[in-house]
């Protein structure tokens, strides 16, 4: 089970789990979880409520302090990636991610067909979690996650990633740079409750060829012209807003060779549905 929002008050927190896994904590849903990293960590670490083990990704110092205190309070053994298990990236391509993993008992190469630099850390965290549960034989070659750095087309290259906070969008941009190559364009749309200005600065820092701004079909989405004005205020002019996702996608596909769609799972879902129709019409 994955907590939908935070942890302390999330519906999934009614279960009495055999293992708790805490992924990297960053700023998201701050109007509910708190504006400080330790406040968000406190909400998330509240899922630790028994003596069963806890596994954590590397965290901000303040977040890790909260997690350690919560684990200690509930007498939950804590295992941390980077301390109890380590990994290094062997290969990153648009088709696969390969790491060298050195865990509690297992050492060797692990491979998945999920692209994206962030999937290397995810795979190592999953491996540590499985080891803590007592598994010694496992692989990730059949793992599949829709909407997370998912390749929808190859010519032109069209990648969708539902990344929607500062940390995940940074990872998505890094992954596109490293596996897809530089000089890519973006189709971007985001919800109003996100750190939009910080995320826009991140996007500008990778110097995309062009940014096609649009909005998913949800009342939470920020209006495209409002996002465009933020880009323009920061001095980035290779940008245009579209009222419909279909219009933004059509414009990008007609002009670009490499496109990353990011900012919202709502947006990723719409683009995925539209691209399937385009592929079907061309076959």
From TrEMBL:
GO molecular function, one term: dihydrofolate synthase activity
Domain of life: Bacteria
EC class of the enzyme, as a word: ligase
Annotated Gene Ontology cellular component terms: cytoplasm
Protein's UniProt keywords contain DNA damage: no
Mur ligase C-terminal domain span: 147-264
InterPro entries: Folylpolyglutamate_synth, Mur-like_cat_sf, Mur_ligase_C, Mur_ligase_C_dom_sf
SUPFAM superfamilies in the record: MurD-like peptide ligases, catalytic domain (SSF53623), MurD-like peptide ligases, peptide-binding domain (SSF53244)
Catalytic reaction equation(s): (6S)-5,6,7,8-tetrahydrofolyl-(gamma-L-Glu)(n) + L-glutamate + ATP = (6S)-5,6,7,8-tetrahydrofolyl-(gamma-L-Glu)(n+1) + ADP + phosphate + H(+)
The keyword Nucleotide-binding appears for this protein: yes
Keyword entries, A-Z: ATP-binding, Ligase, Magnesium, Metal-binding, Nucleotide-binding
Record-listed E.C. numbers: 6.3.2.17
PANTHER family, A to Z: DIHYDROFOLATE SYNTHETASE-RELATED, FOLYLPOLYGLUTAMATE SYNTHASE-RELATED
Family statement: Belongs to the folylpolyglutamate synthase family.
Protein name in the entry: tetrahydrofolate synthase
Organism: candidate division WOR-3 bacterium
Lineage: Bacteria, Bacteria division WOR-3
